[in-house]
Amino acid sequence: MPYPIRSAVAAALALAFAGAASATPPVEQVALRGAPAVVGGLWCGAGLLREFTLEVAQQYQNFEARLIRKNKIRQITGRVEGVRVRTDPQRNETMDLLVEGNELRIIGATGVLSLAKGQFFTRAIGASCTH
After folding, report:
1. 12 touches 116 (CB < 8 A)
2. Which of 4, 13, 54, 115 meets the CB 3.0–4.6 Å disulfide criterion with 43?
């Protein structure tokens, strides 16, 4: 991917952090047969998102998450519908992600987040991401 596109994706995600809060949601996961995909836990940005981490607290279909980059935190809420993760509209931006094994891939987004389409997070091994 050419450097200007990488810069644009990183800049778009950085813009998404404007006015972010820093509260830590409790971590809770529910895993039942036939239930929505379990996305609770720590996810590490890969590729162009390598500076990002995503901490997800899931309660059945609902989730709260913290998208973190360089000590800046953006709060996200939404729902898990099967293997699809849909964020609630926030600042006129939305994001749809697809759970594919240990990857959480951005398959759709609006606003500045649209530049991140196709990028993904991987489930953390252990309690932290190594950047």
Report:
1. yes
2. 54
- Entry pTM: 0.74
Nearest to 10 by CA among 50, 53, 65, 66: 50
3-class state of residue 117 by DSSP? coil
Q: Which residues contact 86 (CB under 8 A, 6 or more apart)?
A: 78, 79, 80, 94, 95, 96, 97
How is residue 119 written in tokens?
Answer: 């990028």
Pair of tokens at residue 92: 């006129």
3-class DSSP assignment, residue 103: strand
Please state, as a whole number, how many other Cβ atoms lie within 10 Å of the Cβ of residue 69: 20
- When pLDDT is cut at 50, 70 and 90, the band that residue 92 belongs to is confident
Is 12's pLDDT higher than 70?
no
Q: Where are the alpha helices (DSSP H) in the chain?
A: 3-15
